[in-house]
Amino acid sequence: MKQLVQTNSSVGSRRLFLASAAGSAALGALMNDELRGGQLHHAARAKRIVYMFMHGGPSQMDLFDYKPQLDKRRGAELPDSVRMNQRLTGMTANQASFPVTPSAFRFTQRGQAGMWMSELLPKLGGVADRLCVIRSMHTEAINHDPAVTYLQTGHQQPGRPSMGAWLSYGLGSANRNLPTFVVLLSRGSAARPDDPLHTRLWGSAFLPSSHQGVSFRADGDPVLFLSDPPGVTPTTRRRMLDGLRKLNERRFAATRDPEITTRIEQFELAHRMQMAVPDLTDLSDEPERTFASYGPDSKTPGSFAANCILARRMIERDVRFVQLYHRGWDQHYNLPTDLRLQCRDVDQPCAAFIRDLEQRGLLDETLIVWCGEFGRTIYSQGKLEQDNYGRDHHGRCFSAWLAGGGVRAGATFGATDDFSYNVVENPVHVHDLNATILHCLGVDHTRLTFKHKGRQFRITDVHGSVVKEVMG
């Protein structure tokens, strides 16, 4: 497998040089040798990544950040010394009261290390010794779109490449018949309006467009226009692509536009995907024990469980980056009911996915990331009721977990204050997490750059440090 990292934007100038030769042979050589630059910056612990993004902001104090002492403070006003005039969202900024709201759920210690985990995640607790839980994540963003954009692209404003696009650009593909970067979306069981997930979150921005994520669908063709239209045979399709290729090559020779070569590459990849994708997405060859292990939703197309099975099949086929988005974690109200539904969606599939990779010898070389864009407030949004409460967005602290290639197993890192409101030990910023992810794949985040608008950009623009303490 070719593992190279691009450290500058020389690909465009190289293509222009080749364009002056204009020949098809030069273009073919270019497309078969997409990667440029030096070797990996250091030895990689992981070859690929599965990023499980819980869209909406999971409540850290109800899942991973155990605060039993708050039971005695239920309903008391959150001290000003803790809140410290924090910038609040418009949904709670005008509240007259900020009542402390302990978790409604029991916590138990799981695994040999005694990791505290909520009763909502019993199956995941069964693999606690494979997890590395970070309890000290923090971000400046407090609303969904900028917070998700920040974590996924390294910037709160749109217009930057996504993590998957950066790794596609830097590491390239290990399977020429499937996309390097695949996106799978599922909707949670909590009955609430979903905040939008824009396609720019898996876009390539100013990187070559061949590095953008390819979204798979649950209904119809897994990828749009994968099937030939009625009356078009495989032979006809091949002849059409050959004709388009010749036209594009002539246009490239005349204009020297690197995006034309991207277009040629994507047409060819789409043609190869017509054979590879149906085999990938056909789960009929999976034994019943697979579906049993991933849970009751695993046979429902588009569910988180079914997407986890698809992700495992992609990992087996060396897809570099698989992004799973699971929506519905924005519990401003009815949290005790809705959070239970959301956890039911992901608990068993996550645990099964970890065990599945481990049994197949793939866990050590696959990095799994699980997180949302921020956490939730310890105070109740609106009125705190006897059996019900909600929580607002909270960026000052939240939890994430990693598993697999390159990270410590059975470990926790970082700590929050007694109210799960501020980080008090080993803070991990959004940029730190992204730097650590790249480090696991053999990439120095300060050296994976692309020149755009006169300066070098990177995903950790302009700071961030590898969290070495979570490395195995």
Characterize the structure shown.
With 472 residues, this protein is α/β, with parallel strands linked by helices. The protein has a single domain (4-470), classed as Alkaline Phosphatase, subunit A, CATH 3.40.720. The protein has 12 helices and 19 strands. Strands 3, 6, 7, 8, 9, 10, 13, 14 and 17 form a 9-stranded mixed beta sheet that branches. The protein has a two-stranded antiparallel sheet with strand order 1-2. Strand 18 (450-452) and strand 19 form a beta hairpin. Helix 7 packs antiparallel against helix 8 and helix 10 packs parallel to helix 11 (335-359). The longest helix has 25 residues, at 335-359. The protein is globular, with a radius of gyration of 23 Å.
Essential attributes:
472 residues; alpha/beta; Alkaline Phosphatase, subunit A; 9-stranded mixed beta sheet; two-stranded antiparallel ribbon; 12 helices; 19 strands; 32% helix
Can you tell me the CATH architecture? Answer: 3-Layer(aba) Sandwich
- Write the CATH fold name: Alkaline Phosphatase, subunit A
Beta-strand content bin: 15-25%
Number of strands: 19
Overall pLDDT confidence:
89
The description of the largest β-sheet is: 9 strands, mixed
Number of helices: 12
User: How many domains make up the coordinates?
Assistant: 1
What CATH first level would be assigned? Alpha Beta
Poorly predicted tracts of residues: 1-38
Percent of residues in helices comes to 25-40%
